[in-house]
Write a structure and sequence with these properties.
elongated; Rossmann fold; about 240 residues; five-stranded mixed sheet; Dihydrodipicolinate Reductase, domain 2
Length: about 240
Amino acid sequence: MKIALIGYGKMGHEIEQIAISRGHEIVSIIDVNNPDDFTTEAFQSAAVAIEFTAPSVALENYRKCFSVNMPVVAGTTGWLDNMPEIKEACANGNTFFYASNFSLGVNIFFALNKHLAKIMNNFPDYDVKMTEIHHIHKLDAPSGTAITLAEGVIENIERKNKWALKDGSNSSNELAIEALREGEVPGYHSIIYESAVDTITITHDAKSRKGFALGAVIAAEFTAGKKGFLTMEDMLKF
């Protein structure tokens, strides 16, 4: 399969290596030095584009892809206020695969988080909070993964109805998220349930970016030839 890459940082390089190892061909790479290459023959020859850039440019990248009918696998977070525009474009014939995290392990963790939250809804003596840690280059906080985890908790625990960054004054109905930026940490997320007598913790700790890159390539394989708005739940069918 022919794949185009949008963004050629550390994630882009990882995705390139994994795509090639799975028998795919990278036919176009768009980065800061060639932002207008969406209209080139090479880019438009791809079956799907995989995008990992920055929140400030992601939406415009998606618009450019849609203008040439290019399906997109999107890995950038921090732009979600504009999601209604993307879903409208998909309703009009475009193709977009979104995940807050492409790691297969993280998506198993999402399912586990929801299941545990359903159980803990019946035990009000336990408060719940979250810690997430990422590398110092990550621009958004909390991470998209943390937001997805928070939504999974809020959907299932009646005593929590919103999330907020931890600031020392969080109310009892808020899920407090401590967002830390340290070194080159690829991704750490921990959900902590604490009572007066014990603590229950579930954690996903990424060892490298390879898990994210592999999931993005598998998502591209799934997306090629499809229409509409797609997610990891469509692909993994939990």
